[in-house]
Design brief:
Residues 392-452 form the CzcB-like C-terminal circularly permuted SH3-like domain. This is Efflux RND transporter periplasmic adaptor subunit. It comes from Ferrovibrio xuzhouensis. Belongs to the membrane fusion protein (MFP) (TC 8.A.1) family. Residues 231-270 form the CusB-like three alpha-helical bundle domain. The strands form seven sheets. Strands 7, 9, 24, 25, 26, 27 and 28 form a seven-stranded antiparallel beta sheet that branches. It is built from eight helices and 29 strands. The protein has helices at residues 2-27, 31-38, 98-104, 152-158, 222-236, 241-253, 258-267, 449-466, and strands spanning 54-58, 66-67, 80-83, 109-113, 121-122, 135-138, 148-149, 161-164, 166-168, 172-182, 187-191, 196-201, 209-210, 215-220, 274-277, 282-287, 294-295, 300-305, 309-317, 329-334, 342-349, 359-367, 378-385, 391-395, 400-401, 406-413, 416-428, 431-436, 443-447. The radius of gyration is 48 Å and the shape is rod-shaped. By secondary structure, it is an alpha+beta fold. The protein has five domains: 2-38; 54-138, no CATH class; 148-170 and 389-466, conserved putative lor/sdh protein from methanococcus maripaludis s2 fold; 172-183 and 307-385, Elongation Factor Tu (Ef-tu), domain 3 (Beta Barrel), CATH 2.40.30; 193-298, OB fold (Dihydrolipoamide Acetyltransferase, E2P), CATH 2.40.50. The longest helix is centred in the N-terminal third of the chain and has 26 residues, at 2-27.
Length: 472
């Protein structure tokens, strides 16, 4: 029974101590008086205090109520000052408190910089217009070089990522409009070299397809008849080879086909009507002849074109011309063939730039066995650009292009970054060729690099402002 009573008294004493501690904290009772009132011997452990600058102020009862300036509660109690060492931080700090580290290895403060990033420094501690403390810059943090140091906590919050520089093939598609045109080497005309009268024209009109050697018309030419008579006379008289060759040459000069000359030689007769045949396979583009008309020397009677191979002329802008090379693969699409594409290669880059369009014509030869491509069709042309050899390239996101200079941020490891000026080359498929400034195997920042670049520029500006103050 006595043991139960003693246990109850002990528990009551503990509860009383707890209640007393609470009221002592609330009503501000002195620790010594509390010790005497409870009858506790010994000392109470002092609560550790924070170090560093005051970050903000918190409700004294640890409620989620904060203030940037000193403040009091409704009952007159002051908010508790929360210092830098007491706040949650993602910065990389060595083991122990900041105060312990500072006592172990004191660092020399070079200057204090504006907490909002403004180009304003001070040789002594101060506050800005908003009451924020200036941030000290220590000797180890400003080495005077171009390397920027960023803590791992900041790297995680800003999302900085880096990738390894490798060699790859850089290429892209140059998309330009084009026009289907005839191959100039596959166009022929039917004409006479002397005055002639058209006796008969076969049933061939514009747009019809003809084959090589097909009869097109019959005509009578006085000059051809006279030359044929002289040739026949030389044949019948057994003339010399030179005379016979001269008469044959006159017939050839008048445009008489070889088969017509052979016919005169075989029949020993000069026909009144000469047969004119198609010189090639193709499509009739023009028919300018009718029966009974008189044709003069050089008059175009028929115009024929072979469309089995055709050209596509594309206008490439001047700024894309350096990416196009002869032999580059080309894909062509026309509106009359939805869902179908034709392939070819660049055969010629014309040696001039259009004064009005600032574009250069590129010629693509393409097979057209089905005849689906017709002259003057509109075409959508995709030209594959870039070289076949791998080059040093970085992602487009790694390049900071100011217009006058190109910069990438090198990742040196351990939170160290270095801006590097580079010279660029071809661009395509999300990558940019680097011709100078970066080597294979380097690591470059591909995300949030503009933040590091801004920090580097700010650091350089502050260094220029504070260099005289940093002198001993």
């Amino acid at each position: 029974m006595k043991r139960i009573v003693l246990t109850g008294l002990t528990l009551a004493a503990v509860l009383a101590a707890g209640v007393g501690g609470y009221w002592a904290g609330v009503r501000g009772l002195p620790v010594a008086g509390l010790r005497d009132w409870l009858g506790v011997e010994g000392t109470l452990a002092a609560e550790p205090t924070g170090t560093g600058t005051v970050i903000y102020y918190q409700d004294p009862d640890s409620k989620p109520v904060y203030s940037a300036m000193p403040r009091q509660t409704a009952d007159g109690r002051a908010f508790r000052a929360v210092r830098a060492s007491e706040d949650v931080s993602f910065e990389d700090t060595p083991a122990g408190t900041a105060e312990t580290t500072r006592q172990a290895s004191p660092r020399r403060i070079l200057y204090y910089r504006n907490p909002m990033g403004l180009p304003d420094t001070s040789p002594a501690p101060k506050k800005d217009a908003m009451g924020m403390d200036y941030i000290p810059v220590y000797a180890g943090e400003d080495d005077g070089g171009s390397v920027v140091r960023v803590s791992l906590g900041k790297l995680q919050r800003t999302g900085v990522r880096s990738e390894l520089v490798v060699r790859r093939t850089v290429g892209r598609l140059v998309r330009v409009p084009g026009i289907v045109q005839l191959d100039e080497r596959r166009i022929s005309v039917v004409a006479t070299r002397s005055d002639a009268f058209i006796n008969e024209v076969v049933n061939v009109t514009t747009g019809d397809r003809v084959t090589k050697g097909q009869v097109l018309l019959q005509l009578y030419s006085p000059n051809i008849a006279a030359a044929g008579a002289q040739f026949l006379t030389d044949l019948n008289s057994g003339g010399r080879d030179t005379a016979l060759g001269g008469a044959r040459q006159r017939l050839e000069n008048l445009g008489l086909p070889p088969e017509a000359i052979a016919e005169i030689e075989r029949t020993r007769k000069v026909p009144l009507s000469m047969t004119w045949r198609a010189p090639r396979d193709g499509v009739v583009l023009e028919r300018n002849v009718v029966e009974g008309m008189k044709a003069g020397p050089g008059d175009v009677l028929f115009r024929l074109a072979d469309i089995s191979t055709i050209w596509v002329l594309a206008d490439v802008p001047e700024f894309d011309l350096g990416a196009v090379r002869i032999g580059a693969p080309v894909t062509i699409r026309v509106r009359s063939l939805p869902g179908r594409s034709l392939t070819g290669r660049v055969s010629l880059i014309y040696p001039q730039v259009g004064e009005a369009t600032r574009a250069t014509r590129v010629r693509i030869e393409i097979a057209n066995p089905d005849g689906v491509l017709l002259p003057n069709m509109y075409a959508e042309v995709e030209i594959g650009s870039g070289g076949a050899a791998p080059v040093v390239a970085v992602p487009d996101s790694a390049l900071i292009d100011t217009g006058t200079r190109q910069v990438v941020i090198l990742d040196r490891g351990e939170g160290r970054f270095e801006p590097r000026d580079v010279k660029t080359g071809l661009r395509g498929e999300g990558f940019t060729e680097i011709r100078q400034g970066v080597a294979e195997g380097d690591r470059v920042v591909v995300a949030a690099n503009f933040l590091i670049d801004a920090e580097s520029n700010l650091k350089a500006a502050l260094r220029g402002l504070t260099q005289p103050e940093a002198q001993p």
